[in-house]
Amino acid sequence: MKPHGLKTAAATCSIAASSKMQSRRRRFLPALSMLATLLALMGAQQAQAGVFDDDEARRQVKDLSIQTTERVDTLSRAQIDLANQIQALREENAKLRGQVETLNYELESTKKRQQDFYIDLDSRLRKLEPSPEGGDPGKPSETSASAPKKATADPAAETREYEKALNLFKANKIKEAASAFSGFVSQHPESTLAPNAQYWLGNAYFALHDCKKSIDAHKLVVNKWPQHSKAPDSLINIATCQQELGDKKGVKTTLETVVSKYPDTPAAATAKQRLKKK
Prior knowledge:
Layout: H1 2-128, H2 147-152, H3 155-170, H4 174-187, H5 194-207, H6 211-224, H7 230-244, H8 248-261, H9 266-276
């Protein structure tokens, strides 16, 4: 009997334990169900957030790509415009350089023609000028003491010396020409070619951009040989130098002197034209 009673008691205990476990399961089952629901909701939200983050990232990448493309296009257009401007500046610079070279050539050619014209005119005037026998007009006749000086003069040698200085000027050797003309005037102050040499000395100083010396040289022509054909031309050159020095009042006075003192000369016509422009 005892063994049967023990089995019955064990079975009873087993049933009781099983009942307790089922009771506990029933109590925890709603909690587990709720926990599972929460986990499912959280997973869904995370999945939605992941999808949203991917779409936003794609949109931002696309916008950034568009902006980058636009900037690259803008920079490319700017570079092309800059290259075109540089090329245009190069072409303009080349054109200006060509114009400057042309103007320099024309200026040198004009100087050369002017020198040739002056020299030709000088030669023509010297052929027309009579050889003075009694000295300058208005002066008393030479004394017998001065006669030997006249006799010892060598017109041919003076002419060669003068022509040599003139050729230096024509060859654009201005410094050498100035020295030669200055030496001629010093050695042959009474020569019939002295006024011409003094005139060309003034022109040489002007070509050397020394207007003060040029004015002094031309003034000597006007003061020492006022009746010489070079005197009115020297006054015109003095006015040109005064203009270079900014002496407007002096220019006007000198040009008016040419018109009043030498009215029938080409220099007077030039002076009148220049006075009209003032």
